[in-house]
Amino acid sequence: MPLSDLANPTRFLTLATRILPWLAGATAILLAIGLYQSAMAPDDYQQGATVKIMFIHVPNAWLSMFVWGVMSMASLGTLVWRHPLADVAAKAAAPIGAAFTFLARVTGSLWGRPMWGTYWEWDARLTSVLILFLMYLGLIALWRAVEDPSRAARAAAILTLVGAINIPIIKFSVDWWNTLHQPASVMRIGGSRLDPAFLMPLLVMAVAFSLLFITLHLAAMRNEILRRRVRALQLLQASRA
Amino acid sequence: MSFASLGPYSHFIVACYALVALVVVILIVWIALDYRRQTTMLRDLDKAGVARRSGRSASDLR
User: Fold this and answer.
1) Which partner from A50, A52, A71, A226 sits 20 to 30 angstroms from B62, CA to CA?
2) Which letter, b or e, does each residue of A227-237 get, where b requires 16 or more Cβ atoms within 10 Å of its Cβ?
3) Quick check: is A115 in a domain?
4) Residue A1 lies in a domain
C-alpha cells in the first residue's frame, strides 16, 4: 500500500485495525522487559534505589515533548496541506501527551522530595514543563469548545505551532539558566554519561513507552475518525427528518 | 527484590510506579470504552437506515 493511501481515513481504519494487536503485543513485551531490568538495576551511589524512578520519569518527560512535536507536524499538515487525517492525529494525541506530561511532572516531584528536599521549585525546567501541561489542557478545551471539527482544527493548529516554541525552551532550560534540575545526561553532545547498568533499562523503557504512545495514538485516531463519521451521519439523518 | 530492599524512600518509588500504572490503565480503558461507544452509535445509525455516501453501511469500518 503506498504511503499516500493513508490519507484516506477509511484505508487508515483498515490498516490501524490490522496492526493494533501487534503493536499492543510488542508494547506489553517491551514493558515487561523494561520493568524487569528496572527492578534488577543496581542502586546509584548517590540516589540509592530512587534511581528506579528515573526509568519511568525520563521516558514520560521525553514523550511529553515528543507528542507536542507530533502534534506540531500534524498542525502543519492541517494548515499547509489540509491533510484529512492531520487534525485527527493532533486531536487524538493531545490527551495522551497531557497524561505523559502529568506523569513526568508528578514522578519528578516524587523523586525531587527525597533527593532535593522539595516537591516543587519555580526553576526554568519545572516551570516550562508545567506550562506545557497547561497548554495541553488548553488545546483539549479548545477542541471541546468548538463543535465543528474543521473550525476547531485551524485554531488548534495555530495554537499548537505557537506552543512549539516551548519545546526547545524545556530542552535547553537546564543549559540556559541556573536550575535545580540537572543538565542532560543521555541526549548530549559527547554521548551519554550514564553507566550501562542504568542506560539499558532506561532505553528499553523509553522504547516501550514510545510504542505505548504509538499504540494508544492509533487507537485514539481510529476513535476520532469514527466520531466524525457518527457526527456526519447524524447531521445527514437530521437533515432528512 | 523486596519492598524493604528499596531503602528508606521505598514509598516514593512504589507510588511512582503505581501512579504510572494507574494512568496508563485509565488511558487504555478510556480509549477502549470510546471505541465501543462510537461503534454502538454507528450500529444504531445503521439500524435507523442511515447509509454513508459510498453506499456502505454506517457500521462498516472498512
Assistant:
1) A71
2) bbbbebbbebe
3) yes
4) no
Q: Please report the sign of the dihedral spanned by the C-alpha atoms of residue A128, residue A142, residue A85, residue A221.
A: positive
pLDDT tens per residue, range A222-236 = 999 999 999 999 998
Which of these, A238, A68, A218, A64, lies nearest to A156 by C-alpha position? A68
Q: What is the pLDDT of residue B52?
A: 72
pLDDT of B49 over the 80 cut = yes
Residue B41, pLDDT above cutoff 80: yes
pLDDT for the residue numbered A237:
87
Q: Look at B58 and A52; give whichever has higher pLDDT.
A: A52
Number of domains in chain A: 1
Domain spans, chain B: 7-47
Q: A230: which residues sit within 8 A by CB, 6+ positions away?
A: B38, B41, B42, B45
Name the closest residue on chain A to residue B42, using Cα atoms.
A230
Q: Is A146 helix (H, G, I), strand (E, B) or coil?
A: coil
Q: Does A94 map to a domain? A: yes
Q: Which domain holds residue A197?
A: 7-240
Interface touch A237/B45, C-beta < 8 Å: yes
Does A233 contact B42 at a Cβ distance shorter than 8 Å?
A: yes
Among the partner-chain residues A39, A96, A216, the one whose CB lies closest to the CB of B1 is A39
ipTM of the complex: 0.91
| A180 and A123 Cβ atoms separated by less than 8 Å | yes
